[in-house]
């Protein structure tokens, strides 16, 4: 397993090009299986989660043609077959194949998902949404089995909370249902709106994605489609913290200010400068960091996927910051590892009390999940001396060439190959 060796203390300066959004790409790969016509996706990030998702699409029978950051997915020959647990257990997002396969074939079998170890992460809302659309759901030998005796039928789907994945499952399934579907309490994340844009390019008729109420007209017919994935707001947020934590200045090419409002507000509270450039955003810091109290919320609130990175930043601000996690119950796995680097963090239920300003010092640490791992990279950039981060494959799941991008901006970072 690869490791990363980082020697901290360099202020990062330069330009980072933000890749396409992993969390937008994954549902779009699943959505391509709805249609018998090819779907050409561009601006795909070169990360292992996307590679795995494409591999699962192939296992279902899709023909995938790759070209650097693009892929054409031709699902003309896809069938509702079963895909082995070994392939899908790595990623929770494979549950997103359930809605499209069910909608197209009237039957789907998908393994109960694995993925990041951040809490229980059930899929009950996905299944409830499909039941509302007329599916019968059972669990057989660890597989979710969904069937529709007749075709799915449009209806009102009310989500008990605005789950991103359940919204995407309901939206994809509803595109092939008879009649109109209304999704209420839908997730408003930009990735949901981007999935709707992709589905609309494929021939669907969806309005309201990006708001709490999405309307889908079913069965509008499919056509070949071309779609460009939106830039990754979480990758942008991560490099923003890299600039802030090292007291440097980075231009984040492709970062979209409108999708990053909560993060920008948090940075400004902490004494970090943010301004737009022609190509994206510029982040810089030349004054001491200030504390902040942050609570993760569904979009447009502060994203849970940036909580760990901002905790690393809070460790470098003199004084106490409170960081509250409301989306996932077990998303503090970075805390013991940050403590190994010298941070002073106490957990009180869903709140982390960060007493910042203690000097961080390099150590051996363990990456545990995607965002927790990158938080350790950020802390290491600010720490005195050398940090070695084990199990870097977590980072490769969601960050394209993280070590190279950081090195180009002056970080002392080296990948130690296994
Ligand atoms: C997506 C993102 C993930 C991000 C999360 C929240 C992808 C591939 N992943 O994950 O990076 O952290 O949104 O912004 O897009 N829940 C249930 N039952 C369900 C579904 C969800 O109880 O059927 C719970 C989850 O356990 C969690 C909360 O709802 O506590 C939010 O989950 P959800 O919005 O569905 O996240 P994901 O789509 O899994």
Shape: elongated
CATH architectural name of the largest domain: Alpha-beta prism
Q: Are there runs of 5+ residues with pLDDT below 50, and where?
A: 115-119
CATH superfamily of the largest domain: Enolpyruvate transferase domain
Major pleated sheet: 4 strands, mixed
Individual helix count = 14
CATH class of the largest domain: Alpha Beta
List how many beta strands DSSP finds: 23
Oligomer: single chain
What strand line-up does the widest sheet have? 21-22-1-23
CATH topology of the largest domain: UDP-n-acetylglucosamine1-carboxyvinyl-transferase, Chain
User: What structural class results from the helix and strand content?
Assistant: alpha+beta
Number of domains: 2
Average of per-residue pLDDT values:
94
Distance linking N and C termini: 5 Å
Summary?
The chain has 418 residues and is an alpha+beta fold. It has helices spanning 22-31, 48-59, 85-88, 98-105, 124-132, 164-174, 190-202, 233-246, 261-269, 307-314, 334-340, 370-382, 393-396, 402-408; strands at residues 3-7, 13-17, 39-42, 63-67, 70-74, 107-111, 136-140, 143-147, 156-158, 180-184, 205-207, 213-217, 225-228, 249-253, 273-276, 280-284, 294-295, 319-324, 344-348, 351-356, 364-366, 386-390, 412-416.
């Amino acid at each position: 397993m690869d490791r990363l060796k980082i020697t901290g203390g360099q202020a990062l300066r330069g330009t980072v090009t933000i890749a396409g959004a992993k969390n937008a790409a994954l549902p779009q790969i699943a959505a391509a299986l709805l249609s018998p016509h090819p779907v050409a996706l561009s601006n795909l990030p070169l990360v292992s989660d996307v590679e795995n998702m494409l591999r699962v699409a192939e296992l279902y029978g899709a023909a995938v043609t790759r070209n650097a950051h693009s892929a054409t997915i031709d699902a003309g020959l896809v069938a509702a077959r079963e895909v082995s647990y070994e392939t899908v257990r790595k990623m929770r997002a494979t549950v997103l194949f359930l809605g499209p396969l069910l909608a197209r074939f009237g039957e789907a079998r998908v393994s109960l998902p694995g993925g990041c170890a951040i809490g229980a992460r059930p899929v009950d809302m996905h299944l409830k949404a499909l039941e509302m659309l007329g599916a019968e759901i059972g669990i057989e030998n660890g597989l979710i089995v969904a069937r529709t005796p007749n075709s799915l039928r449009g209806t009102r789907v009310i989500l008990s909370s605005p789950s991103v994945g359940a919204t995407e499952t309901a939206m994809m399934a509803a595109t092939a249902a008879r009649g109109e579907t209304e999704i209420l309490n839908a997730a408003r994340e930009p990735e949901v709106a981007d999935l709707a844009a992709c589905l609309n390019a494929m021939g669907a008729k969806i309005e309201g994605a990006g708001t709490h109420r999405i309307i889908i007209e079913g069965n509008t017919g499919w056509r070949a489609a071309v779609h460009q994935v939106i830039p990754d707001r979480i990758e942008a947020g991560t490099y923003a913290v890299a600039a802030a934590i090292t007291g440097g200045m980075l231009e984040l090419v492709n970062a979209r200010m409108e999708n990053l409002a909560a993060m920008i507000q948090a940075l400004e509270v902490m004494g970090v400068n943010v301004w737009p450039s022609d190509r994206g955003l510029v982040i810089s810091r030349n004054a001491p960091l200030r504390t902040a109290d942050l609570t993760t919320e569904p979009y447009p609130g502060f994203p849970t996927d940036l909580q760990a990175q901002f905790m690393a930043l809070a460790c470098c601000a003199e004084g106490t910051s409170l960081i509250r996690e409301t989306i996932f119950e077990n998303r503090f796995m970075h805390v013991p590892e940050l403590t190994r680097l010298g941070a002073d963090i106490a957990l009180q239920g869903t709140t982390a009390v960060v007493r910042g300003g203690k000097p961080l010092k390099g150590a051996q640490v363990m990456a545990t999940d995607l965002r927790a791992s990158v938080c350790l990279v950020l802390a290491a950039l600010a720490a005195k001396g050398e940090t070695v981060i084990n199990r870097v494959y977590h980072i490769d799941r969601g960050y394209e060439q993280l070590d190279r991008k950081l090195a180009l901006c002056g970080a002392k970072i080296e990948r130690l190959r296994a």
